[in-house]
Amino acid sequence: MTTARENDESAAPVQPATVPPTAEDPLAEAGSELIGGPIGRRATTGRRGWWNPLRVLALVAIGMFALGMVQKVPCYDSGWFFGANDQYTHACYSDIPHLFFARGFADDLVPYFDHIPDATSGGMGFLEYPVLTGLFMEIASWFTPHGSDLVHREQVYWLVNAAMLLICAVVTVVAVARTHRRRPWDGLLVALSPAFALTATINWDLLAVALTAVGMLMWARSRPVAAGVLIGLATAAKLYPVLLLGPLLLLCLRAGRMRAYWKAFGGAAVAWLVVNVPVMVFAWDGWEKFYTYSQSRGVDFGSLWLIISQQTGDPLDGANAYAIALMLLMCAGIAALILYAPRRPRFAQVGFLVVAAFILTNKVYSPQYVLWLIPLAALARPRWRDFLVWQACEVMYFLGIWMYLAYTTGGNNKGLPEGGYDFAIALHLLGTLYLCAVIVRDVLMAERDPVRQDGSDDPSGGVLDGARDVFVLGRRAHQPRHAAQFTSGYVEWGRENADA
Fold first, then answer.
1. 9 in a structural domain
2. Contact, 264 vs 226, CB < 8 A?
3. 171-183: string of b/e by CB count within 10 Å (b at 16+)?
4. What is the pLDDT of residues 354-383, one digit of tens each?
5. The domain containing residue 272 runs over which residues?
6. Domain-embedded: residue 89
7. Helices and strands in the chain: count of H runs, count of E runs
8. Is residue 219 part of a domain?
9. Exposure of 132 by Cβ count < 10 A (0-12 exposed, 13-18 middle, 19+ buried)?
């Protein structure tokens, strides 16, 4: 005889099991031997208990961020001024302490409104960052003590910014973990990323990264207005998040979900305007500095154009036109992929591709730009092998740029010469292209996509998830299966986990 409770439990549908990475990723399974082997069949990997995935991932992110701060200790101890180029030989450079003085924060100048003396700013005149990033920098300066000891104040300013950026890092990891409901452990790719730890405190990019990650989480939860607002705020902190609206338009067009898209677009436009219009109205010269500087700056570190310039001796004065033309060409390819692919690509896949295209064609590819791609990579291609191949290339470039600057500023021919630096640039460009190629293959051969192998369609797609195509230029594949149609292995694993 069964009880009513047992009848209720037997009638209830089996909840989709959380996908343990050691069950589907050979590299994760092999690496798990360091901590006792793959997860057991009856282990709890869902939300029950204190040690749920989100708490574990947050703690791992904090630990890795702390290691990244420790890596900056040689520079911190001397206030980033110990010798002519030691901050490069120790690979611990950061823009944050230098710009505290060079952009007027040490003198309590208001960003965008107060002109920075040329002797301080090197002729920059105004802060060359978007408005929300400028506000972030200004808030950090409020918590930095006044005094005559500039070196100490710069140390404190870096620490305050690091604490604020740590919050952004944790938010990013948690948002990625929650975007794919059944795959929270994909957030471990972000939390354990070596490039994430090494570059987190070079600049203020993590603010835009965190806002973008939460925006994508809101889209995955079918909340387009909230998603748009967060993407608009992210664009007010860094330009790249607005690029996500391009592939999203085509995905919604293909799926017939244009109403949701226009809600997201409207939310993004309103949020960006609310942040920017007050500064535009009252401090136009300061506001436009970011945009004029981006256009006028020459070919810079880490870019394809720098390799060409250094190898040919041509300063490439037309680099802006070349970069725009190549970017448009790559975007046209991504658009064709979205509309012609046999099965509609996932949002994270084409999001990664369009941001990668922007970085690859840009006049500068700074080390911290990798932060823009890491959360997107974890959602687009959650496989440790490919992720670590790419990360190895980025870490090599991280070391390469500082050794090159040590060579060019030290006056002792110690470091990485121009040819070696060009090789380092090529390595991290090729690493990014490799990950792009793997993602394109997943789009064209959906059965190779790790996220779709269990029957899912687009877990980060929100209203796109499971939607039928209404506009396709190519030959349409079978309609997407719903996420409830999992493979038998995962269903069995879920039942066992529910009984445990």
1. no
2. no
3. bbbbbbbbbbbbb
4. 999 999 999 999 999 999 999 999 999 999
5. 59-467
6. yes
7. 24, 0
8. yes
9. buried
